[in-house]
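Appendix B. Chain record.
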Amino acid sequence: MRNLISEINALKDSSVGRSVNKRLSDFSSFQKRPAQDWFSELCFCLLTSNSKAKTAWNIQKELDYDGFMALTHEQLSRRIRANKHRFHNTKASFIIEARKHPGIKDVITPIVESSGGSAAREWLVENIKGLGYKEASHFLRNVGYFGLAILDRHINSIMLENGLIKEIPKSLGRKQYLEVEKKFKALADKVDMAPGELDMYMWYMKAGEVLK
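C-alpha coordinates predicted for this chain:
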Protein backbone atom coordinates (compact mmCIF):
# COMPACT_ATOMS: atom_id res chain seq x y z
CA MET A 1 0.00 0.00 0.00
CA ARG A 2 2.92 2.33 0.65
CA ASN A 3 3.83 2.41 -3.05
CA LEU A 4 0.23 3.13 -3.98
CA ILE A 5 0.05 6.05 -1.56
CA SER A 6 3.33 7.44 -2.94
CA GLU A 7 2.06 7.20 -6.51
CA ILE A 8 -1.22 8.92 -5.64
CA ASN A 9 0.61 11.74 -3.85
CA ALA A 10 2.94 12.19 -6.83
CA LEU A 11 -0.03 12.47 -9.18
CA LYS A 12 -1.65 15.03 -6.91
CA ASP A 13 1.37 17.32 -7.35
CA SER A 14 1.44 16.91 -11.14
CA SER A 15 -0.59 18.13 -14.12
CA VAL A 16 -2.96 15.25 -13.38
CA GLY A 17 -3.78 16.90 -10.06
CA ARG A 18 -4.67 20.12 -11.83
CA SER A 19 -6.97 18.23 -14.20
CA VAL A 20 -8.62 16.44 -11.30
CA ASN A 21 -9.16 19.69 -9.41
CA LYS A 22 -10.76 21.27 -12.46
CA ARG A 23 -13.11 18.32 -12.85
CA LEU A 24 -14.02 18.42 -9.14
CA SER A 25 -14.79 22.10 -9.50
CA ASP A 26 -17.09 21.26 -12.42
CA PHE A 27 -18.88 18.71 -10.26
CA SER A 28 -19.27 21.19 -7.40
CA SER A 29 -20.90 23.67 -9.78
CA PHE A 30 -23.90 21.34 -10.09
CA GLN A 31 -25.20 22.71 -6.81
CA LYS A 32 -26.08 25.90 -8.71
CA ARG A 33 -26.97 24.34 -12.04
CA PRO A 34 -30.52 23.66 -13.27
CA ALA A 35 -32.45 20.43 -12.92
CA GLN A 36 -31.99 19.70 -16.63
CA ASP A 37 -28.23 19.32 -16.12
CA TRP A 38 -28.83 16.88 -13.27
CA PHE A 39 -31.15 14.78 -15.42
CA SER A 40 -28.58 14.72 -18.22
CA GLU A 41 -25.95 13.55 -15.74
CA LEU A 42 -28.30 10.85 -14.49
CA CYS A 43 -28.65 9.56 -18.04
CA PHE A 44 -24.87 9.60 -18.47
CA CYS A 45 -24.50 7.41 -15.38
CA LEU A 46 -27.19 5.04 -16.65
CA LEU A 47 -25.18 4.70 -19.84
CA THR A 48 -21.97 3.83 -17.96
CA SER A 49 -23.36 0.60 -16.51
CA ASN A 50 -21.26 -2.30 -17.89
CA SER A 51 -20.00 0.04 -20.61
CA LYS A 52 -17.22 2.53 -21.31
CA ALA A 53 -17.49 5.93 -19.65
CA LYS A 54 -15.90 7.64 -22.63
CA THR A 55 -18.55 6.53 -25.12
CA ALA A 56 -21.26 7.33 -22.56
CA TRP A 57 -19.86 10.85 -22.33
CA ASN A 58 -19.83 11.16 -26.13
CA ILE A 59 -23.51 10.19 -26.20
CA GLN A 60 -24.30 12.69 -23.46
CA LYS A 61 -22.58 15.50 -25.35
CA GLU A 62 -24.48 14.54 -28.49
CA LEU A 63 -27.96 14.27 -26.94
CA ASP A 64 -27.90 16.20 -23.65
CA TYR A 65 -31.16 16.95 -21.84
CA ASP A 66 -33.32 17.59 -24.90
CA GLY A 67 -32.37 14.34 -26.60
CA PHE A 68 -32.54 12.24 -23.45
CA MET A 69 -35.98 13.63 -22.68
CA ALA A 70 -37.61 13.73 -26.11
CA LEU A 71 -36.31 10.95 -28.35
CA THR A 72 -38.32 7.77 -28.79
CA HIS A 73 -36.98 4.43 -27.62
CA GLU A 74 -36.06 3.53 -31.19
CA GLN A 75 -34.27 6.84 -31.75
CA LEU A 76 -32.35 6.59 -28.48
CA SER A 77 -31.36 2.99 -29.16
CA ARG A 78 -30.14 3.89 -32.64
CA ARG A 79 -28.06 6.85 -31.41
CA ILE A 80 -26.54 4.77 -28.60
CA ARG A 81 -25.71 1.98 -31.02
CA ALA A 82 -24.19 4.44 -33.51
CA ASN A 83 -21.62 5.35 -30.84
CA LYS A 84 -20.66 1.65 -30.56
CA HIS A 85 -21.99 1.61 -27.02
CA ARG A 86 -23.16 -1.63 -25.41
CA PHE A 87 -26.71 -2.70 -24.59
CA HIS A 88 -28.36 0.00 -26.68
CA ASN A 89 -31.93 -1.27 -26.25
CA THR A 90 -31.61 -1.75 -22.49
CA LYS A 91 -29.98 1.64 -21.97
CA ALA A 92 -32.68 3.34 -24.04
CA SER A 93 -35.30 1.71 -21.82
CA PHE A 94 -33.53 2.90 -18.66
CA ILE A 95 -33.40 6.49 -19.94
CA ILE A 96 -37.08 6.51 -20.85
CA GLU A 97 -37.93 5.09 -17.43
CA ALA A 98 -35.81 7.81 -15.79
CA ARG A 99 -38.06 10.46 -17.36
CA LYS A 100 -40.35 9.89 -14.40
CA HIS A 101 -37.79 11.90 -12.41
CA PRO A 102 -37.00 15.10 -14.37
CA GLY A 103 -36.69 16.98 -11.07
CA ILE A 104 -34.08 14.62 -9.65
CA LYS A 105 -32.16 17.59 -8.21
CA ASP A 106 -35.08 18.56 -5.99
CA VAL A 107 -35.36 14.97 -4.74
CA ILE A 108 -31.70 14.29 -4.03
CA THR A 109 -30.66 17.63 -2.53
CA PRO A 110 -32.89 17.47 0.58
CA ILE A 111 -32.04 13.80 1.17
CA VAL A 112 -28.32 14.58 1.21
CA GLU A 113 -28.82 17.65 3.39
CA SER A 114 -30.93 15.79 5.95
CA SER A 115 -29.54 12.24 5.89
CA GLY A 116 -26.28 12.22 3.89
CA GLY A 117 -24.97 10.77 0.65
CA SER A 118 -25.50 7.14 1.63
CA ALA A 119 -29.21 7.72 2.11
CA ALA A 120 -29.41 9.46 -1.25
CA ARG A 121 -27.66 6.51 -2.86
CA GLU A 122 -30.16 4.10 -1.33
CA TRP A 123 -33.00 6.17 -2.77
CA LEU A 124 -31.41 6.15 -6.22
CA VAL A 125 -30.83 2.39 -6.23
CA GLU A 126 -34.39 1.80 -5.08
CA ASN A 127 -36.11 4.24 -7.45
CA ILE A 128 -34.04 4.59 -10.63
CA LYS A 129 -34.12 1.47 -12.77
CA GLY A 130 -30.65 0.65 -14.09
CA LEU A 131 -28.68 2.27 -11.27
CA GLY A 132 -26.69 -0.02 -9.02
CA TYR A 133 -24.49 1.14 -6.14
CA LYS A 134 -21.62 1.98 -8.46
CA GLU A 135 -23.72 4.05 -10.86
CA ALA A 136 -25.60 5.80 -8.04
CA SER A 137 -22.29 6.68 -6.37
CA HIS A 138 -21.00 7.94 -9.72
CA PHE A 139 -24.04 10.18 -10.18
CA LEU A 140 -23.72 11.66 -6.70
CA ARG A 141 -20.02 12.36 -7.19
CA ASN A 142 -20.69 14.04 -10.52
CA VAL A 143 -23.28 16.39 -9.01
CA GLY A 144 -20.96 17.42 -6.20
CA TYR A 145 -21.18 14.86 -3.38
CA PHE A 146 -17.74 13.31 -2.88
CA GLY A 147 -18.19 10.99 0.10
CA LEU A 148 -18.91 7.69 -1.70
CA ALA A 149 -16.75 5.18 -3.59
CA ILE A 150 -17.29 4.36 -7.26
CA LEU A 151 -16.16 0.74 -7.31
CA ASP A 152 -15.66 0.01 -11.00
CA ARG A 153 -13.29 -2.52 -12.51
CA HIS A 154 -10.33 -0.11 -12.53
CA ILE A 155 -10.67 0.70 -8.84
CA ASN A 156 -11.22 -2.91 -7.82
CA SER A 157 -8.21 -3.99 -9.85
CA ILE A 158 -5.88 -1.52 -8.12
CA MET A 159 -7.23 -2.49 -4.72
CA LEU A 160 -6.56 -6.15 -5.49
CA GLU A 161 -3.05 -5.46 -6.78
CA ASN A 162 -2.20 -3.59 -3.59
CA GLY A 163 -3.63 -6.11 -1.15
CA LEU A 164 -6.60 -4.01 -0.06
CA ILE A 165 -8.97 -6.79 -1.08
CA LYS A 166 -8.28 -10.51 -1.47
CA GLU A 167 -10.35 -10.92 -4.62
CA ILE A 168 -12.63 -8.94 -6.89
CA PRO A 169 -16.21 -9.91 -6.02
CA LYS A 170 -18.08 -11.56 -8.88
CA SER A 171 -21.01 -9.34 -8.05
CA LEU A 172 -21.31 -6.29 -5.85
CA GLY A 173 -24.60 -6.40 -4.01
CA ARG A 174 -25.25 -4.01 -1.17
CA LYS A 175 -23.34 -6.00 1.47
CA GLN A 176 -20.29 -6.63 -0.71
CA TYR A 177 -20.25 -3.07 -2.01
CA LEU A 178 -20.27 -1.56 1.47
CA GLU A 179 -17.51 -3.92 2.64
CA VAL A 180 -15.18 -2.93 -0.20
CA GLU A 181 -16.18 0.72 0.09
CA LYS A 182 -15.11 0.72 3.73
CA LYS A 183 -11.60 -0.31 2.67
CA PHE A 184 -11.55 2.29 -0.08
CA LYS A 185 -12.57 4.99 2.40
CA ALA A 186 -9.75 3.93 4.73
CA LEU A 187 -7.30 4.49 1.88
CA ALA A 188 -8.89 7.87 1.15
CA ASP A 189 -8.28 8.87 4.76
CA LYS A 190 -4.61 7.89 4.48
CA VAL A 191 -4.08 10.20 1.49
CA ASP A 192 -6.30 12.93 2.95
CA MET A 193 -8.81 12.91 0.10
CA ALA A 194 -12.54 12.50 -0.23
CA PRO A 195 -13.45 9.14 -1.83
CA GLY A 196 -14.80 10.87 -4.92
CA GLU A 197 -11.49 12.65 -5.41
CA LEU A 198 -9.34 9.57 -4.83
CA ASP A 199 -11.42 7.70 -7.40
CA MET A 200 -10.27 10.06 -10.13
CA TYR A 201 -6.59 9.49 -9.39
CA MET A 202 -6.94 5.72 -9.22
CA TRP A 203 -9.06 5.69 -12.38
CA TYR A 204 -6.32 7.68 -14.13
CA MET A 205 -3.73 5.13 -13.03
CA LYS A 206 -5.52 2.47 -15.08
CA ALA A 207 -7.16 4.45 -17.89
CA GLY A 208 -4.46 7.07 -18.45
CA GLU A 209 -6.91 9.98 -18.62
CA VAL A 210 -9.15 12.10 -16.43
CA LEU A 211 -12.79 11.81 -17.48
CA LYS A 212 -15.73 11.98 -15.13
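Further analysis of this model is presented in Appendix C.
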